[in-house]
Design a protein that fits this description.
With 405 residues, the chain is of the alpha/beta class. It is built from 17 helices and 13 strands. The chain folds into two domains: 211 residues, Glycogen Phosphorylase B (Rossmann fold), CATH 3.40.50.2000; 180 residues, 3-Layer(aba) Sandwich (Rossmann fold), CATH 3.40.50.
Length: 405
Amino acid sequence: MTDPLGQSQVLPYLVGLSKLGYDITLLSCEKPERFKKNKSVIEAIIQSNNINWQPISFTSSPPVLAKYYDLYQLRKTAERLHLKKKFQLVHCRSYVSAAVGVHLKNKFGVKFLFDMRGFWVDERVDGGAWNLNNPFYNQAYKNYKKKEATYIAQADAIISLTEAGKQEMQTWQSYQQASIQVIPCSADFNLFSLTSLDKKLASRRLLEIKEDALVISYLGSVGAWYLLDEMLAAFAVIKEKYTNAVFLFITTEPAEMILNTAKNFKLQASDFVIRAASRQEVPVFTAASDINLFFIKQSYSKIASSPTKLGEILAMGIPVICNSKVGDVESIVREMDAGIIISDFTAENYAKIVAGIPELLAKNPAIIRDRAREYYTLDNAIKKYAQVYRSLLPELNYVSSTSAE
C-alpha cells in the first residue's frame, strides 16, 4: 500500500467499498524503506475509513524464493485473522495472494475472488525478468502456470483488466465458467481534473517551458515495458516538423538514462524537461502537455494490461499517441476519438503521427474527458466491485471480507 500503485489502484477501491458497509481487513506486503516513509500516510487513510490494515514485510531476494517466503507469511497471517474474524470472502489481488485465497476456500469454505490484474506469469517472461533458458526460471514458470490454472479453476469470480484478457481466459482449459467482470485501472477524476489554457500556462511557468512550445509528455516509469527508444525516435521525427517541440518526462527515472539514449537520435538536452513528481504533483505537471505519448512493448501478456496512465491522461482531456496490441487500448482510444494509434514502430507510422498532430491539437479536452468518464471513473469501478461482492454473497446484507495484496 505504500507503493504508488497501491495508493492509486487498491486503496481507493477499498475505501469506496468500506463506505458501502463492507468490513475490510487489508493484508499486504510492504517494502521496508517505503513502509518507513509512507506508513503514516496509509494509516491516516485506513483509519478514517474503518479498514483494518495488517502489513507484513516484503522480501525481494533471493529471486523467486522470496515469493515463496512472502506467501508463507501471507498464508499464516490470513489463517490467524480468519480464525478470529470468520471472513466470508477473500479478495486476492494478483497471483501470490491468490494462493492464500485458494487455501482459505479449501480449508474454511471462504468464497475466493481472483482479481488477477493481468497475466502475471507470462509478463515475467515477456518483460525479460524470467529467462526460460535458465533452468531455475523455466521451472518457476512451469510451477506458476500450474498455480494459475488452479486459481482460475477454483475462483468463485474473476476480475480482468481488459475485455481482450477476458476473452483469452475463456479459451483456457482451466476456465470453469466463473463470472468474469472487466474493471480497468480507473482514474481519480477529482485529482486528474480537466486541463485548461490557464492551467497549461501556469504549469509551463512552473516547469520553465516556453508558452508557445509544442509539449509532448510522457508519464511514468521507463524501461522493460515502456519503449524509450521508439518514443524518442517518434519525437525526433516530430521535432523535424515542430522545431519548438519539447519532450516532458514526468518520471522518477534518472534524467541521464533518458538523455544518454536521446543522443542516439540527435536530440539535445534542451529538447527535454525531466521531473519527478509526487502523486499530487503529477496532474499539475501534466497540465503543461499538448499531447501525451507512450509506447508499450507488444506481447502475449499485454493483452490483459490496462495502463493506468491512459485513464489519467484522458481524464484531463489530453489527446494521446500510443500503439495497438496492448489490452483494450486501441478500441478505447478509437471509440473516444482521443488520439492516434500506430500498429508498429516504423518511419511511415512516425510520419503518420506528425501529419495527425494538427487534428490532435484541435480536439476539445472537455469532450475527451466526458467520453472517458464512464469507462474510467473510480465510482464506476467501485460499483462493479460491489456487484461482484453481492453476487458471491447474495444472502448477506453485510459482508465481512479480507483483501490480500
